[in-house]
Amino acid sequence: MNVTLYSTKSCPHCTAVKKWFRGHGIRYTELRVDQNSRAAKTLARKGLRGVPQVEVGGTFVLPLTYPKLTKACGIK
Fold first, then answer.
1. Does 76 score more than 90 pLDDT?
2. Fewer CB within 10 Å: C terminus or N terminus of the chain?
3. Is the pTM of this model over 0.85?
């Protein structure tokens, strides 16, 4: 399962999602939209504003809530 976290350095909610991933043993790729213009453009093309945004298996988890993230990541 490919999991991508779109984040910025100063985002406290991004930090919380990273902690949640670590707590559940979820491996993920972090793309910092404040440093990666391609990642920022990806979000803009999808009409997504703000971070964190999480993509699981090519699908964005919207709205980003822990119950939806749990289901998308296949956690029982």
1. no
2. C
3. yes
